[in-house]
Write a structure and sequence with these properties.
The protein is an alpha/beta fold. Helix content is 35%, strand content 22%. The chain has 13 helices and 14 strands. The strands form 3 sheets. A 7-stranded parallel beta sheet has the order 6-7-8-9-10-11-12. Strand 1 and strand 2 form a beta hairpin. Helix 3 packs antiparallel against helix 4, helix 6 packs parallel to helix 7 and helix 10 packs across helix 12.
Amino acid sequence: MLSLASEKRVIMSLQASWKRYTLNFTFDAGTSRGVMRSRDTWILKVWREEEPYTYGLGEAGPLPGLSIDHRPDIESHLERLTRLMGQLAYPADEADALQVAASIVPDEWPSLRFAVETALLDLLHGGRRSILPGAFEAMPRVPINGLIWMGDKPFMLQQMEDKLAAGFTCLKMKIGAIDGAEEEDVLDAIRERLPASELILRVDANGAFSPDEAPERLKSLARYDLHSIEQPIKPGQRAILADLCQSSPVPVALDEELIGIHSKQERAELLDEVKPFGIVLKPSLVGGIAATREWIGLAEDRGITWWITSALESNIGLNAIAQLTASYKPVMHQGLGTGQLYDNNFPSPLVIRQGSLQYDKAVTWDLSQLDE
């Protein structure tokens, strides 16, 4: 892979480049879709010809087996985008930047649209990684859940102890990949430590249950006083999912079900048909900042709960998602704790303290790895 400088495309005032970057997990990250040890992500850089040292950054990090734009031709599309962006005028304001991103990135490339939105907004606001200025001033501490990854029972229990010791009051546990009885042993241990009045507990099945087993699994899980379960069955089974949402003793939230639904009408139809308790929004999977805002508006109109979750981005993508989240001043715990998963992430002002994500202005960004 060439350097950012050697990949640039120069047409008119705006210039753009990209770089593939491999993030390495600090542990084997287990989900119902398998174990991840590393993942590729793509960093987009945009600047004006006359001010090359002031630049905006965005991240496209499609996930294997989940994102609709995790495709082998992603880099050819990045090349196309850098050429197109070289023909663009400097965005006039936030609305213009989001509209430009929507106009040049097709719906089937949600993570690329998120990257373009973020890079343009960053550039518009001075290239200081300030995507939505004032977001963290309005909400300096965003409450987040501590994530317990799948693994053997001792590993999961150790994660629980570590998260509780770090001050988390909400835990989210991945389920569906190991023996159900062993998972429930872990849930038993969590509830023995703290009741629902002292600890919020969520589970995420990533579509691991079959339609036949889902009702019994949900019934069994109900005794843990769960806040919610995310995506109990695979997406695309809308009628069955609607029945589960109405009959489940555990509140059901949609996650993967939202991916690939692009128009406002289609989004509204999904919510009206399924009537979930909540929706889990991953901006890089559902189409970016503008798309996430649209989902939130539709959910709030229907009294549906929502929360925002990062999708294993580096701190560049997480920073944009965190600022979007903070702009809503959420009271509910969000899913923004993934920045500590990698041993080669980009050092940034994003810090986790006492179960909340904060922006520490005393810490500076270190993006030197992008120049290697």
